[in-house]
Design a protein that fits this description.
Blueprint: H1 2-15, H2 17-44, E1 56-60, H3 82-91, E2 96-108, E3 117-124, H4 128-132, E4 136-139, H5 144-149, E5 153-156, H6 158-165, E6 174-177, E7 180-188, E8 211-214, H7 217-220, H8 240-244, E9 252-256, H9 263-279, E10 290-293, H10 294-300, H11 306-335, H12 338-346, H13 351-388, H14 400-426, H15 430-435
Parallel strand pairs: 3-8, 5-7
Antiparallel strand pairs: 1-9, 1-10, 2-3, 2-6, 2-9, 4-7, 5-8, 6-7
Helix pairs in contact: 1-13, 2-11, 2-13, 2-14, 11-14, 13-14
């Protein structure tokens, strides 16, 4: 029966190609605008590590000024000091823990034709790799013993390995970084989590670093700090160690629990840690320790910006306007078919039968409009990618879920748009209409 109604609907749509085209265009424009913004918001807010997002927690402790909060209302810093990054990691009170930060330095390739270049660095602990599960092309991360011994070991990104070693297995080879010779222990495969949830300080959608090395080398090699560095009081001395011991926040700290409920015991540990630091003259504010799992952290940091959400709402409003135009076009179409509808009613067709028939016709318009809309959405996403460049990589592609959502939205919208025109057409009195024919 549905197939029969489908054939009738196609014949009906072919009778007035212009009107059909206008309806498809109206639906397509609305779906295109809506799906462009919905896709960006969907990808921005997607769970970047669904296998363990409920067990990974960002840690906040409030070491800020006693006179004002880091941010209102009474929010602690979103990063920690070097002291907290090292001391909380070394306390080993969670299943896994890793302080981390960013730096930079010059890599000197061995090839005579290769020029030195400035590389970005993520300094972290051995637990970083099992915690965040980056894929390895060769080798693995370093050990906890390498952290403690401050070994000169390094993990390369795939891009850095291609640049330095032409993509070959470089595990066991050496790399000269800022005058120090490092041993390569691993090479990552392609890894670009979007958003970059474990370090939102400098941008949720920034590129990953070129190389990774032990956080303990920051002190040993006096590595420069990159990224956000915020201080609420002057540093006591103009020495590197004084900077490390200062209240400047420039590192991130994450923990992993075997059970999400372990966070309560860890919060107790944080309260005790801060109480001890208060006795040393630090942490002048009231206790304000916080733990956020991955999705809570993304929401807390407002990774999906208000203006992006506003654009999505405006696009949905535009879709509603397009649907209102579709309703008007369907009314015009069905008004011209009152005689046909009256005749079918007169020979026994029920309102339900006619409603189903015209709903199938509207659904076909929705499918065609959805196809046009997805093409327009793809073009819109390509335009966003061209406008904003690499910062939108991974955020401007239509996956299977979004394609299904686009078609579903188009079909449901077109059927809803057809409800009133169909009801109006099926409500006519057959006898009165036939007399006028």
């Amino acid at each position: 029966m549905i197939a029969y109604y489908g054939r009738l609907a196609l014949l009906s749509l072919k009778k007035n190609v212009l009107l059909t085209g206008l309806m498809i265009a109206a639906i397509g424009l609305g779906i295109g605008a809506a799906m462009t913004t919905i896709t960006v918001n969907y990808l921005m807010s997607a769970d970047p590590i669904p296998s363990k997002s409920e067990r990974l927690f960002a840690v906040q402790v409030d070491n800020w000024s006693p006179n004002e909060a880091y941010d209102e209302p009474n929010l602690p810093p979103d990063q920690v000091t070097w002291l907290e990054a090292t001391q909380l990691t070394e306390a080993k009170m969670a299943y896994r823990q890793a302080g981390m930060g960013t730096s930079y330095g010059v890599i000197e390739p061995k090839g005579q034709d290769q020029k030195p270049y400035l590389a970005s660095v993520r300094i972290t602990y051995a637990d970083f790799f099992p915690m965040f599960e980056p894929p390895f092309l060769y080798g693995s991360g370093w050990s906890a013993q390498a952290d403690e011994a401050r070994e000169l070991v390094i993990v390369l990104s795939k891009e850095a390995n291609n640049e330095i070693f032409g993509g070959a297995n470089s595990v066991g080879e050496t790399v000269t970084f800022s005058g120090n010779v490092f041993r390569v222990v691993g090479v990552l495969d392609e890894w670009e989590p979007k958003p970059k949830f474990f370090d939102l300080a400098t941008g949720a959608f920034n590129d990953m670093e070129d190389v990774y090395m032990p956080y303990t080398l920051k002190q040993a090699l006096e590595l420069d700090t990159s990224g956000n560095n915020n201080c609420w009081k002057p540093i006591a001395e103009e020495t590197f160690q004084a900077f490390l011991n200062s209240e400047c926040v420039n590192s991130q700290f994450w923990v992993e629990f075997e059970d999400p409920d372990d966070k309560y015991a860890y919060l107790d540990f944080l309260h005790n840690y801060v109480a001890e630091q208060k006795q040393l003259g630090r942490f002048p504010r009231e206790q304000n320790n916080r733990l956020h799992n991955v999705m809570e952290w993304l929401e807390y940091q407002e990774v999906v910006a208000d203006d992006a959400q506003m654009m999505m709402y405006m696009a949905l409003m535009f879709l509603i306007v397009c649907l209102l135009n579709t309703i008007a076009l369907l009314l015009a179409k069905f008004t011209g078919r009152f005689g046909e509808i009256a005749l079918r009613r007169a020979v026994g067709a029920s309102r339900r039968t006619l409603m189903l028939h015209y709903s199938v016709e509207a659904a076909i318009v929705g499918v065609l409009g959805g196809l046009v809309g997805l093409i327009l959405a793809w073009l819109g996403l390509q335009g966003i990618s061209a406008l904003y460049g690499d910062s939108t990589e991974g955020l401007t592609s239509l996956d299977g879920t979004m394609i299904a959502v686009g078609f579903a939205l188009a079909i449901v919208s077109s059927i809803l748009a057809a409800l009133y025109p169909t009801w109006r057409a099926c409500s006519i009195a057959p006898a009165g209409q036939l007399k006028t024919q």
